[in-house]
Automatic annotation (TrEMBL), chain A:
Any one GO MF annotation of this record: ATP hydrolysis activity
Protein name: ABC transporter ATP-binding protein
Membrane topology: Peripheral membrane protein
Organism: Nonomuraea deserti
Keyword Acyltransferase: no
Annotated ABC transporter domain residues: 5-250, 348-590
Subcellular location: Cell membrane
Record's keyword annotation contains Nucleotide-binding: yes
One Gene Ontology term from the biological process aspect of the record: peptide transport
Family from the record: Belongs to the ABC transporter superfamily.
Keywords: ATP-binding, Cell membrane, Membrane, Nucleotide-binding, Transport
UniProtKB/TrEMBL annotation, chain B:
Transmembrane segments: 39-57, 101-127, 139-157, 163-180, 267-287
Compartmental location: Cell inner membrane; Cell membrane
The ABC transmembrane type-1 domain, residue ranges: 101-287
Protein name as it appears in the record: Oligopeptide transport system permease protein OppC
Lineage of the species this protein comes from: Bacteria, Bacillati, Actinomycetota, Actinomycetes, Streptosporangiales
Length: 671, 302
């Protein structure tokens, strides 16, 4: 069967700087090609080049053939006729991809009418059908809604509906699930699969998530520095890896299905700048297998197996990444340390909801946090996980503010925040520090690294911080001579290290980490996670680790608390919770994580949650999860359901160090 | 946390890191590395030198009148020529520059500083601080500044120029402070401010260390523009007989007088006007260079 889309030696450069170099790939009907790579590897530019959507300054060479028709150099009219018809695209950010002022149904109908001669009515009917196909409940009603009335996952479904409106032959998905929560990601991937079956289209899936590719793609193309470095079937690339970069990527991902504290293997250094590529193999400076020959010239793609090619001169010697067998032993349960550094009891935080500009009246209350209990002991790491809107950030701010909570109590290092005077509060600030998600935003762009690190020291009365600053920089693995630079002169991973150094400046006992690695590329993320782990062990720190990435939490945390709609659904020792989650929500959450392991990924069955998170302004009665609970819908009898509707479950202990807020909790293996 | 102490001890002999670059030194370094900054600074310094050291070399003082030469073109006796009254243009120009430079620069600095502080406090603390600042600035906005300055002009007798500067500045800061307030509110939400708060840095220090430096581009542009505004306001005040009073002169009074004779005696106008233009240009160059020096993302002269 001849390929639908055939890309040969595609190169793109912007003002002489190559962004994509000699990309060749082909997709057949019904095939899914995954393109993976870190930021700056040229994967998005490749997709834009294929669609003919590059800005005017770009120079494109090579060939892109759709059904044998050359697209590079084709006239704008020709391109328009195939864009959206033969070839369509799903973008990363569904909010900015939809026009905010038109109804969703009209936008889909427009996509239909651009390429098909049908009247308005027929197009609208088709739009409703498409909405139904992508799983939007009450499609005829929702077609009249505006994009802002849709949640992120729903918007992405609309995008998919638009993409398949004209039965395309190729759908290019550019990070379609990156902006979404993991359970919504699972839903959207399912919709994509369904859409593909319906249309028989080939899909090019661009992503940085090796897990998504493992379960979804048939073939994988790994890109590095604008160039494919390994191409092959999913199993070949994952199990018979022949390129050290791919091995490195696979080794640097924390796994949700593997317990135990195995340090990740980060890839040293940073990706090269496209303007200054090294003379030989672009990966050579970071490669653990580098030899002198690597630096002579860039290796071509060697045929290393049936339909499997890799760009490494030592491909015969490359050992595939061995994830190790899933550990079986019950990993000696450690006693929890006795001293608590943080205790949260019955924490409640509401936000009033107002309406009207002139006469503001209260129309409701957002129950952001509705009764949360947990404690964190000395030297322990508690992972706080949950999807967006689950209240984890509010919980965090409540703790960090050190102000008396609206209801309940917060005890930090033995001090109740409700009974703190200003001096004490400042004292506690010294012992409790925070690291934010985005290091570029959390470091003052106008201050040098020296001043940034000196700030906490000055604030708490240290006069000459020069020495300490050098010490801190080397503690987090940076060169002390970089103190005179500005944050923007550093790469993402290095910036996060600076943020960590600042948090450590005063030798705190409690570190609050708000998604500290989610803004980083996988290969960089691994280094920061390892750093956090080793600092904790060396300095005896306690971490409150907030994240939405469950795999990272499993890797670093001792205990985990899963939040849903302002309450804790399940809490307990991390291996216990991951191995045998009790709460249906935790089970769904864990089953939704894509694993970078194609065989297991294909064999798993997902517990798909329906719909979106209910609004925290109007939570369901009784158990908050019951509206989406697969157990409530499928397994429980009418009588049993009544309990869920009437009584809000409290977290009750089940097992040694595990508790779940479910009336009918039972163990289930899902990872 | 003493792990790396031993290894570091060698590298860190006192003085290596102790003199770590502070922000002030770094910015000064970057400022003087840019050609613009050096040029602007040099010209401005030259202007000051001319204004304050010039009278020492000039044979005439600004009060002297040469009754042998009325409205004469430049000559070896009168370098810039003379006015209708017989006053030496060089001497009065320098005298005028002394006043205008000091008044213009100071008024601009004071008003921008006022705008920055008032706006940042209002935006950071909100609540009653915000209401007070907004009320005061609204009040000053509706007051006719020119009239108030005119009424107060008898107070600006000889030697009272600082009062004049302050009054002038008092009517220049309001609009900028509103912009600063708005920008502070958005800056306040940014994570590095949160980080500083959670670190225990007192609010006032956050304002001066984080908020205001991050608005420096705006403030510097504002100050640069204010220099010309201040000089021109002073000029128009003096033109109407308020502000600087005769026999004292300022660039404003000189330009006002000179413009009448500019056509047939260009030296009475063009020297003064030229120096004013050069001064304002130099201030703009300095402002540009300062803005670049403050902004780490500008293309730099490293």
């Amino acid at each position: 069967m001849s390929p639908v889309l055939d890309v040969r030696d595609l190169s793109v450069s912007f003002g002489g700087v190559p962004a994509v170099r000699e990309v060749s790939c082909a997709v057949r009907r019904g095939e899914v090609l995954g393109i993976v790579g870190e930021s700056g590897s040229g994967k998005s530019v490749t997709s834009a080049a294929v669609m003919g959507l590059l800005p005017p300054g770009a120079r494109v060479t090579g060939s892109v053939r759709l059904h044998g028709r050359e697209l590079i150099g084709a006239s704008a009219r020709e391109l328009t006729s195939c864009r959206g018809k033969a070839m369509s695209m799903v973008f990363q950010d569904p909010l900015s991809a939809l026009t905010p002022v038109y109804r969703v149904g009209d936008q889909i109908a427009e996509a239909v009418r651009v390429h098909q001669r049908v009247d308005k009515e027929a197009a609208l009917v088709r739009a409703v059908q498409l909405l139904d196909l992508v799983g939007i409940p009450r499609p005829s009603e929702r077609a009249l809604a505006f994009p802002h009335e849709f949640s992120g996952g729903m918007r992405q479904r609309v995008m998919i509906a638009m993409a398949i409106a004209n039965d395309p032959d190729v759908i290019i998905c550019d990070e379609p699930t990156t902006a979404l929560d993991v359970t919504v990601q699972a839903q959207v991937l399912e919709v994509l699969k369904k859409a593909q079956q319906k249309t028989g289209a080939a899909i090019i899936m661009i992503t940085h998530d090796l897990g998504v590719v493992a379960g979804f793609a048939d073939r994988v193309l790994v890109m590095y520095a604008g160039r494919p470095v390994e191409v092959g079937g999913v199993d070949d690339v994952y199990y018979r890896t022949r390129m050290p970069y791919t091995v490195g990527l696979l080794g640097s991902i924390p796994r949700a299905d593997k317990g135990g504290r195995r340090p990740l293997t980060p890839i040293e250094g940073n990706p090269p700048s496209p303007a200054a590529l090294p003379p030989g193999c672009p990966f050579a400076p970071r490669c653990p297998m580098r030899i002198d020959a690597c630096e002579e010239r860039e290796p071509p793609l060697f045929e290393v197996g049936e339909g499997h090619r890799a760009a490494c001169i030592r491909w015969k010697e490359v050992a595939p990444y061995d994830a190790g067998a899933p550990e079986v032993s019950g990993s000696a349960r450690r006693e929890r340390p006795p001293r608590a550094v943080l205790e949260v009891r019955g924490l409640v935080k509401d936000y009033p909801l107002f309406k009207g500009a002139l006469f503001r009246r209260r129309i409701g209350t957002v129950h952001a946090v509705a009764g949360v209990d947990f404690d964190l002991r000395q030297g322990e790491t508690l992972g706080l996980v949950g999807e967006s809107g689950s209240g984890k950030t509010t919980t965090l701010t409540q703790i960090l503010e050190l102000a008396p909570p609206q209801q309940g109590s917060i005890t930090v290092l033995g001090h109740d925040t409700a009974r703190l005077d200003a001096a004490r509060r400042t004292g506690i600030r010294r012992d409790m520090q925070v690291v934010f998600q985005d290091p570029l935003a959390s470091l003052d762009p106008r201050m040098t690294v020296h001043d940034i690190l000196a700030e906490p020291l000055h604030t708490h009365g240290q006069r000459r911080p020069g020495r300490r600053i050098a010490e801190l920089l080397s503690l987090v693995g940076l060169d002390p001579s970089h103190a005179a630079r500005y944050p923007q002169d550093f790469s993402g991973g290095q910036r996060q290290r600076i943020a960590i150094a600042r948090a450590l400046a005063l030798e705190p006992r409690l570190l609050v980490l708000d998604e500290p690695v989610s803004a980083l590329d996988v290969s960089i993320q691994a280094g920061v996670i390892n750093l956090l782990g080793s600092l904790r062990d060396r300095l005896g720190l306690s971490y409150l680790f907030v994240a939405h990435d469950l795999a990272v939490v499993r890797h670093i945390a001792d205990r985990v608390a899963v939040m849903y709609l302002g309450r804790i659904a399940e809490i307990g020792q991390v291996d216990a919770v991951y191995r045998a989650p009790m709460h249906p929500y935790t089970q769904a959450l864990l089953s939704a994580i894509p694993l970078p392991d194609p065989v297991r990924e294909r064999a798993r069955d997902r517990i798909l949650l329906e719909g979106d998170l209910p609004s925290p302004a109007d939570p369901p009665t009784g158990c908050r999860f019951r509206t989406r609970c697969p157990k409530f819908r499928a397994e429980l009898t009418g009588d049993e359901r009544r309990l869920c509707v009437d009584v809000e479950p409290e977290v009750r202990p089940l097992g040694a160090d595990q508790g779940a807020a479910c009336h009918y909790a039972e163990r289930r293996d899902v990872v | 946390m003493t792990l790396s102490e031993e290894e570091l001890a060698e590298e860190l002999r006192d003085g290596v890191m102790a003199g770590a670059p502070s922000r002030t030194r770094l910015i000064a370094g970057r400022f003087f590395r840019s050609g613009q900054g050096r040029l602007g600074f040099a010209v401005l310094a030259l202007m000051f030198l001319l204004a304050f050291a010039g009278p020492l070399v000039s044979p005439w003082s600004y009060l002297d009148k040469d009754f042998t030469a009325f409205l004469q073109p430049p000559s070896p006796g009168h370098w810039f020529g003379t006015l209708q009254t017989g006053a030496d243009v060089f001497a009065v120009t320098l005298r005028g520059m002394q006043k205008s430079l000091v008044v213009g620069l100071l008024a601009a600095l004071v008003s921008t500083a006022l705008a920055a502080v008032a706006g940042a406090f209002a935006g950071y603390f909100l609540g009653w601080t915000d209401r007070t600042v907004t009320w005061v600035s609204d009040l000053l906005l509706v007051l006719p500044a020119f009239l108030v300055l005119a009424i107060m002009s008898p107070l600006f007798g000889s030697g009272q120029w600082p009062l004049f500067v302050i009054t002038l500045a008092l009517f220049l800061w309001m609009v900028t402070s509103k912009v600063v307030r708005g920008m502070t509110i958005s800056t306040k939400e940014r994570e590095f401010i949160q980080a500083a708060r959670y670190m225990g840095v007192p609010p006032v220090r956050i304002i001066f260390r984080h908020v205001i430096p991050n608005l420096s581009s705006l403030l510097i542009v504002d100050a640069t523009l204010n220099v010309s505004t201040a000089i021109l306001t002073e000029t128009s005040l003096s033109y109407f007989g308020f502000g600087i009073q005769p026999p004292d002169v300022s660039l404003g009074t000189l330009i006002a007088d000179g413009s009448r004779t500019a056509v047939y005696a260009p030296w009475t106008f063009w020297f003064v006007a030229g120096l004013l233009v050069v001064t304002v240009l130099a201030v703009n160059l300095v402002g540009d260079a300062l803005r670049d020096a403050f902004d780490p993302s500008s293309k730099r002269a490293r």
